[in-house]
Description:
Transferase(Phosphotransferase), domain 1; 17 strands; three-stranded antiparallel sheet; single chain; alpha+beta; Plant_Ser_Thr_Prot_Kinase; nucleotide-binding; ATP-binding; Phosphorylase Kinase, domain 1; membrane; globular; EC 2.7.11.1
Amino acid sequence: MGNCLDSTARVDAHAISASGVSKNSSRTIGFSAPSGLTTPSRSSLSLPTPRSEGEILSSPNLKPFSFNELKSATRNFRPDSLVGEGGFGYVFKGWIDENTLMASKPGSGMVVAVKKLKQESFQGHKEWLTELDYLGQLHHPNLVKLIGYCLDGENRLLVYEFMAKGSLENHLFRRGPQPLSWATRVKIAVGAARGLCFLHDAKSQVIYRDFKASNILLDADFNPKLSDFGLAKAGPTGDRTHVSTQVIGTHGYAAPEYVATGRLTAKSDVYSFGVVLIELLSGRRAVDKTKVGVEQNLVEWAKPYLGDRRKLFRIMDTKLEGQYSQKGAYTAASLALQCLSAEAKARPRMSEVLAALEQLEAPKNAPKLSPIEHQMSPTSASKFHSPVNLKPSSSPFLSPRQGVRTR
C-alpha cells in the first residue's frame, strides 16, 4: 500500500516553518439534503475534538497577528499585492521576519500569503475557524502550512506559507503558464493523493470535502499541497459508516451519493480525486459551460474512453504533444474510472490509489521535463507492490442538481 504518513507528517507540531500560499478563485455550491459506507483503517494520529473557539485560537503552533501588522506586511493590502480572489475574499502577498514573524519591509524576510475574509462572505466565521482548527493541528508535506491568523473586530485573516507556482487550476486551464509535463502531472497526482491519504488514515479521520484543482497549490518545485480546509469534516466514529451533513461542495467534483443523500464518507473524497485525475489527463475543467452538450461535464464526456486503451488518446491533453507514457496514462485513466465508481464501496481507498500512482513515478514512465520544470528534484520511485485492481468498472455521472445556491 502507499505510505500516507510521511516521516515529517505530524499533529500538534511544536514549530512552524513556512515561506508563504497563493489562492485562486473558485466557486463552491451548496445543495441541501440529509447521510453510509465503510471507513478506512486509521493511523495513530489523533486530533483532540471537539475544541472550543478559545482552544483553537490559543494553539501554540499559530501566531496571532494584529490587523495593523498584516496591513504593514501587505503594504496596506495594496492592489499590486493581490495574488488571488475567491468566494471567501482576497489573498495578498506579504512579508514577515523569518525569526520573529513580525511584519517586515516588502521584499525582505519571508514571503507569506494573507487571506482576508470578506465580511459578507458565505464562508463566514465558522469555516474560518474550521480551517484554523485543522491546519493548526495537522502538519504534512502535502498540506499547506498555516502560520497564523488575525481576529480583530470584524476582520478575519489567515497567514500561510507562500506557494510560488499558484494553483493547479491555473496551470491546467489558463493561458500563459507553460504546459505541465507528464512527469509533473504524475508528481502532482501522487503528492495530492498523499495529502488525502494522510487525512483519511488519521486515527481521528478527516474528510476534506472540497478536493479540486483550485485547492491544490504548487510550490516552486511543483510539489502539491492541499489548501482551504473550511469545509473539512471529522469522519464517522464508532459504529457509524458516514457523517450526515448539509451538502456543500463544487459542481463536477462532488460524489453523486453525497449530493443525493448528504451522507459523507472518505469515499466522497476518492470520487473527487478521480475527477481531478481526469483533469490532469485531459487538461479540461470538471465543468465547462463554453463546451457544447455532453462535453460540458468532464466525467460524462471522458468516461467512455477511460477504460479503452485504443481510444484514450482522444481525451489526452493536446498540450502534452504526445509526450507521455501510454501505459502510464492508461493506468491513471483506469484508476480514475475506479474512483468514479457508482458504488462508493467499490471505490478504492486513498492508500490503494496512492500505491497505484506511485508505480507511475518509476523512471521508465517519466518522459523528459519541460524547460520550466528542469530544476525540479526527481521523486524516488515507490517500493510498494500492492497497486489497486485496475479493472474498469461502470459508475454514474453527477448530473446537475436543482435548487443550487452559490457560495
